[in-house]
Write a structure and sequence with these properties.
By secondary structure, the chain is mainly α. Helix content is 74%, strand content 0%. It has one domain (2-113). The chain has 6 helices and no strands.
Length: 114
């Protein structure tokens, strides 16, 4: 990954968990991302009852994506950004998925360490 994106993912992932209890939702979110894709990941988090953690995950990960993928730099909301700006650009969509996966893996490790 260019531009030391791995470090950016690690920094973002470290901001997500606040206790080791957060590991469960992070792991479930990672599973949704891997099985169903980027749009499903954000939709899953938007529907969760654990609002504070889900919102933190959305905020942190979408901010990372906006800083790394120019087509969504000015996007206001994840679901519409993915539908309108990423869905037709496979390279950007795959980059987004990779960044999200790596970030969630780091978040899970940080949660375990708490």
């Amino acid at each position: 990954m260019e531009n030391n994106l791995d470090l950016k993912c690690a920094e973002c992932g470290s901001k997500i968990p606040q206790s080791n209890k957060d590991e469960t939702l992070i792991t479930k979110s990672l599973g949704v991302l891997q099985e169903d894709g980027v749009y499903a990941f954000f939709l899953y988090l938007a529907s969760r009852g654990e609002k504070e953690l889900a919102e933190r995950i959305i905020e942190q990960t979408f901010s990372l994506l906006k800083n790394q993928i120019t087509s969504i730099k000015d996007a206001g909301e994840p679901l519409s950004a993915i539908r309108e700006k990423l869905a037709d650009n496979l390279d950007s969509l795959l980059l987004a998925k990779q960044l999200l996966e790596r970030t969630l893996v780091y978040a899970r490790y940080h949660a375990k360490a708490l």
